[in-house]
Write a structure and sequence with these properties.
Layout lengths: L12 H12 L5 H16 L2 H25 L2 E8 L2 E7 L5 H12 L18 E2 L2 H12 L5 E8 L4 E6 L3 E6 H11 L7 H12 L17 E8 L2 E6 L5 H5 L11 E9 L4 E2 L4 E5 L5 E4 L5 H19 L3 H13 L8
Parallel strand pairs: 1-4
Antiparallel strand pairs: 1-2, 2-3, 4-5, 5-6, 7-8, 8-9, 9-10, 9-11, 11-12
Helix pairs in contact: 4-6, 6-7
């Protein structure tokens, strides 16, 4: 790839100082005037067609360099809630679960260098992003391209720490459990990064909690037959997880006989999971209520994987093939009776 070339010119320092002083009164410099003169010489001596070819070549090389830099760029993304405020930001650095857990513990203990007024302020080079950009990068994290090294939601108000796992989607833990796990991971001197990560995960094993907005693979399972309604494949979700924590209900109790039915839908024509779950609350007194639950990028990706596996188990076909067959059957003209 081409680059700029430095030219050297020699001039007596007395003469150069005098010239610089004279040009300063004209609000310019020797370097600027020399560059202007060189540009005029280039335009006067190099044919227009050649200059256009060179300009296009330089633009192509710059675009290729920018694309290469973007391809190698790594980042981590955060959604932080603290004291009623929330912030979405990205860090252009390799920030993984182990790093974030250690930073969290140092912040909670207000250790030197981490005694900040807020968690976000620990990252002075953070770049603010929109919620939509956060969702896009979360999905990129699950695609395991290596570009997004970590995606985190840390809610200090609810005392929850959530991180995206490339296979299971969101995993949520109590902030205190993450802090304790980080203590054990960094307690022993001389342990390498892989060893510290294993200690961290060992201490968090069995500590995962259920959280609204963070449905993970462990909470998603299906039962009954897959039904097709108006171009949507309907999957009945088993509700063995803590549905109260996710949907804000009060059915995981002996105080009432309320029940909850949850369905996830797949849009056959669009080839994607629908944005919302169908959540139907059936109260013991006969009243029924539909509850809203909008899925985020990670939840939709985990649901898609789970739907595909369940579809293959139930029908012997992938989700894409099964939905394509149903659409083809719906579009087929009716057969004529034999005379």
């Amino acid at each position: 790839m081409s680059g700029d070339v430095q030219l050297e010119l020699w001039m007596n320092e007395y003469e150069l100082d005098a010239l610089a002083a004279a040009l300063a009164r004209e609000d310019t410099t020797v370097e600027q005037r020399m560059l202007d003169a060189l540009t005029e010489l280039y335009v006067a001596r190099v044919p227009r067609e050649t200059r256009q070819e060179i300009s296009a070549r330089i633009k192509e090389e710059l675009a290729a360099r920018d694309a290469e830099m973007e391809a190698s760029r790594k980042c981590a993304v955060f959604h932080v809630r603290e004291n009623g405020r929330e912030e979405y930001f990205r860090l252009d650095q390799n920030q993984e679960l182990l790093d974030t857990a250690r930073t969290l513990r140092r912040y909670l203990r207000q250790e030197p260098g981490a005694d900040s007024g807020s968690f976000s302020e620990l990252f002075p080079r953070r770049e603010a992003i929109t919620p939509d950009e956060f969702e896009r990068l979360v999905l990129l994290r699950m695609e395991n391209t290596g570009k997004v090294t970590g995606a985190f939601e840390i809610d200090f108000d609810k005392r929850e720490f959530s991180a995206v796992h490339i296979m299971d989607g969101w995993k949520t833990f109590a902030i205190g459990d993450v802090s304790v796990a980080a203590y054990y991971a960094f307690r022993k001197e001389g342990l390498n990064t892989d060893g510290r990560y294993r200690v961290l995960m060992d201490k968090l094993d069995g500590r995962e909690i259920t959280s609204a907005g963070h449905l993970s693979a462990r909470e998603i399972s299906f039962a009954e037959e897959i039904s097709e309604i108006n171009g949507l494949l309907n999957f009945y979700m088993e509700t063995g997880f803590n549905v109260d924590a996710v949907f804000g209900t009060h059915v995981c109790t002996s105080e009432n006989d309320d029940t909850l039915n949850v369905y996830a839908n797949y849009d056959c024509s669009a080839g994607q999971v629908c944005d919302e779950l169908e959540v139907d609350l059936h109260r013991a007194d006969g009243r029924e209520e539909s509850l809203p639950y909008t899925l985020n990028a990670a939840e939709k990706e985990v649901l898609l994987r789970k739907m595909d596996a369940y579809c293959q188990e139930q029908t012997g076909q992938t989700l894409r093939d099964y939905s394509a067959q149903l659409m083809a059957d719906d579009m087929a003209p009716p057969t004529q009776p034999l005379m």
